Structure formats: C-alpha cells, structure tokens
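User: For a benchmark we're assembling, each entry needs the component sequences followed by a predicted structure for the full assembly. Here are entry 17's components. Please fill in the structure.
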Amino acid sequence: MSIIKTENLSKVYNPDTVPVHALNNVNISFEEGEFTAVRGPSGSGKTTLLNMIGGLDKPTEGSVTIDGVDISKLKDSKRIDFRLHNIGFVFQHYNLIPVFTARENVSFIMLLQKRGKKEIRERADALLDKVGLSKKKDSRPVQMSGGEQQRVAVARALASEPKFILADEPTANLDTESAMNLLDIMNRMNKEQNVTFIFSTHDQRVIDRARRVITMVDGAIHKDEEQHVAEQA
Amino acid sequence: MATFIKLAWRNLWRNKRRTIITITAIMFAVLAAVFMQSINRGSYEVMIDRMVSFNTGYIQVQDYRFDDESSLDNSFYYDEELRDKILNADWRIDKIVPRIETFMLAANDVSTRGAVVLGIDPDKEHEFNEIRNILSDGRFFEAGEQSVVLGQGMANRLQLSVGDTLALMGQGRFGMSASGLFEITGIVDHPIRDFNNQVVYLPLDTAQELLSAYDHVTSVLITLQNERHTNPVAASLKSALDGGELVVYTWPELMPEILELMEMDLAVPRLLTVVLYIVIGFGFFGTVLTMTMERLKEFGVLLSIGLKRLGLASVLFLETLLFSLMGVLFGLGFAWSILKLIDPINLSGEAAQAVIDLGFDPVIPMSFAPDQFYTQGFYVFIIAMIVFLFPLIKISRLNILEAARS
Ligand SMILES: Nc1ncnc2c1ncn2[C@@H]1O[C@H](COP(=O)(O)OP(=O)(O)OP(=O)(O)O)[C@@H](O)[C@H]1O
Ligand SMILES: [Mg+2]
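Assistant: Structure for entry 17:
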C-alpha cells in the first residue's frame, strides 16, 4: 500500500476574488523508501503539493490519505499532532529555533513527542554525528553555516521517526558544495534506513540524484518518471 | 515545561536592549507606585498605630447602645464570668483590658475644664500600652487609691502638678451626681494630642464608685498577638457573645474618620498610579507586539513541525510573565530598600517647627504595609494578562502558510 495517496486533489487560492488554480486534479501516490524530486517552473504548484501532502493546508477539492488516514478531514490540533508523529519537514529557511543549540533543536521535537530523557539525548547525539555535526552540537543557528543549519533540520526531521520527510527547496539557499553534501546525507539516510524523502527543487544537479522525478506544469503532473542514478563514490 | 521556560527565557534576551528597557519601565512604575503610597500612608499608620495601641485596641466589646449614646447608662456589668467568656472565645486573644469612660468637669481652685475620665486597671493598662513609660512626672496610682494621673496638656491648662488636688464633677450612672477630690500622683505626656489635653486617669474601682457604676465598664479592649487575627477573632467573639447586649467592634470600625481621611489622601497617588500603569502598559504592549510580529515565520515553522498552538501560547505566556515578574521583583526590591534607607524622613527648620506646633513629631514616616507591595504585583500581573491577549489571539488565528510567507 502507498504511504501517500492523493485523489483528485485541487487547490484554488482566493476563490472569491482572483482565483488561482494552484493544483488541478492531481492523482499521485508515493511508496515507502522513495527518493523523489518534484520539479517544474516557478508557480507550477510544487510548494502547494508538498503543503497538501504535509497537511499544512487544506485542499479545495479531493483528498490526501496518509497511511490510510484522510488528513484533510482532521481538525487543526489533531492535524498538528499527526504531523508531529508522521511527517518530517525541512524548509528552505528559518528552519531552526534560533535560541536553541543544534542539540536542543533536534531534542525539541522528541520532547514534543514525549520521549524519555535518555533516549532523546542519545538519539540527538547520534543523529548529529550522522549528519556530520559532531563538533557543532552546542552551536546555535547563527554560529552555523546555511548548509550546517539544513543538516540540523534534516537531523531534526529524522529524530521524530516520521513516515516520510518533505523538503521544499532545501538546497535553494546553499552553495553547490553544501547542497551536494546535504543531498549525500539525505541519500545515505534513504539507503541505510529506508527513510522516504520527497523534495522540490530547481537545481538540475539535485534532480540528477533522485530516483523518481515528478515534473509539474500549471498545477498538474506533467511527467512522472523513474531514473537510474549512478552510485556515488 | 522546563524546555518551554528555557525557550521563553532565551527568547526574552534575543533583543537585550529592548527587554532591559521594558523591564526597567515596569520596575519604575512599580517603584513609583509603592513610593507614592508609602509616603502618604506612613503618617496615617503612625496615627492609627497610636490610636490602636493607646486608645482603642484591635477589638472592643461594648454595649450595643454605647456607640449611639456614650452614656454611663449604656455601660455593662463586667465580672470574672464575662472575662472568661471573652478570653475563651478565641485562643488568639492575648489580653483584655476593661475601662470605664465618661465626660466630666475637672477643676482647680479657680478654673474648670472638660475632661475625658478614664477608669483603668493600671496593671492591665500598662501591659496593654506601657502607659507608665509615658509618665513625665510622678508615679502611676495603684488600684483603690483616691488618685488621678493627668495628661500633660490638661495639667498645664489647670496649672496643676504632682501632689496638687483635682476636683471632678459630673453625673454618674442613672443621673446620680458624682463628685470628688483626688490627689494627682502623676502626669503623662500622652502621644495622642487630644488625650494629652483632656485625659484624667483614675483607678477603675475608684471611678466605678465615683460614678455609681459598681462592677460596670463601658468597654473591654482586646489585644492580640498579631494584628492579622483581628477579623477572625472578632468573628469568634461575635458568636460567643451572640444573643446578648454586647457588640464587637474592630479597630477600623472604631475610628472610621481616620481611615476615611487616609483614603482621601490616597486618591491622588492611586490615580497617578493608574495613569502610570496605563502608560507603561502601552509600552509593554508595544514590546510584546513587536516580539510577536517579528517571529510569525518562526511560529509557522514550530506549528508545522508539530508544536501545538497551546504549547506555543504557553511559551509566549511565559515570556510575558517573565517580563512582568522581573519588573515587579526589581521594582519592589528597590522600593523596599530605598524606603528602608530614608525612613523616616526627618524634617528640620521651619517645617519641623510647624509640625511640632501642630502636635506631631517632625518626621515623615514611610509605610511598609505589605498590601501596597503585593497589590502592585497584582496590577502588573493584570496588565501582563491584558497584554498577552494580543499574542494569544494572533496564535489562535495564525495560518501556518501565511506565517511562513510573511
Ligand atoms: N497563499 C496563496 N495565495 C494566493 N496564491 C497563491 C498562494 N500560494 C501560492 N499561490 C499561487 O499558486 C500558484 C502555485 O504556487 P506554488 O508556490 O505552489 O508554486 P511553486 O511551484 O512552489 O513555485 P516556486 O518554484 O516559485 O516556489 C502560484 O501561481 C502562486 O502564485
Ligand atoms: Mg515553491
């Protein structure tokens, strides 16, 4: 069974004034363990699609089902709770709590999940090691580079053990090296732990690393193709 | 919760200068509010304190008619049984002091003056107000003596001194005529001006005989270990004496005029305090408003990853609370220290003389009444709650996507 499934998913912004059809009848599903890029011109609806799948916004029509749960029918606080336990997020920027250190940022989400102190501490440490930030655990976001911050965001998303991680242009603000580095980490997590990643991007080098590439045009799925990726050294 | 407090605390210090300014503003408002109150209340408290400790006591028992008509006809029979009944009414009662009080004429060979005649038990009275310590001349009489002790002012006006004889004339109980000659054994410098000018103390039994009021008193004063117990003890007494002709008064009921005057004098500082708090409240609101608006994006991210609105609201509530808490604590701390430092303000020169001529001490005492401290904390807390409404409403309506776009 697919972990994510949309049915006739449509989104119209400002239906009463100047209607914008951001998504038109999208039917798509995602399986566990995918490493998928969503591409398309600006305004094609990538962010809107990810927001719908992530339960950050309600569809105008159609439904989004995650693991059998129709999330568009959930009430606000239930939806927040659902996100906490099922979906990981990496945003383009302003990802982290600025007054918390890397470790505290990663721990915070597990605290919200009410995990035990010891587990939180150990997981936060292990995850930060995995994303290559062993030396930056006690640094605050301002003391880290953009790439490091995004890696903390990935560690945080992983910490909650979600069913999948959504990343809307995670590399948009990064230089090439940091972008590739972040992608390596995401890729490794995907391979080693079967973590599902769905990310939107404009960057061809990032697209090249995805195993499935979805192309959007005018709020609809234009192309949906598998691609073979050469193993990274 | 610990994490929320940590988060709130650190958020507070993201803009150090703004936070310090806000806390300082709250601090000064609290400081000024306490100060204005304290200076205005201090003199009244001294006055009230003297009244309570020299005259009224915390609680009095009287005949129910005495308040309307302070006549000896409205005195009451006081014996050991009644004494025990009162003493046993509440364990917080310290001592009880019986008195008989009436108005008579006091005379020397040539002139006559009105006098407040107080029949007292010298030992009990001393235990109550250490009256022997204010003797300026002579000694205090013992029970049964045909003697009196005068207020200094009274003695001066009648040009009498220790060893002289004073004549008292008036009416006893039920219209019996009352008169007698008494030896002056002592003169007191009474701290209450009216008393100093008018009082004549007699031994209780001597007074009862003079006034044909055998075993009768006009009031019984009740002293307590702690002023705080006034109301509960009065309540126990009321129920113990229920059904009889005796009524119980607490000290505010015994001197309503002074309290009214004090309230009037406090009206201006209270008004100023309100104005001050409104001004500070707007400043506080401004800070919280900017702190909210500049972080909407961050709030959006927090709600996205799974922090509930209630959780986010708690963090912002803690921030507002910490602001006010620090302002209040510093404000009260400073107010208290400064008041302690200057208390009492000693007047000098002409001002001092003017006050002395009015019969007061040339000092401005400060009040340390605890309520003026904690009420400020309460006011600031109320302001904080009102200010907090803004982020609360903002959070409850926050649209995650709009926040992320802002
Ligand atoms: N909140 C909104 N209100 C009105 N219109 C919106 C809103 N959000 C998105 N849109 C519109 O919906 C369409 C799709 O937007 P979306 O952000 O999903 O595109 P995108 O593919 O992510 O673009 P980009 O590559 O620039 O990020 C656009 O025309 C956009 O202007
Ligand atoms: Mg986008």
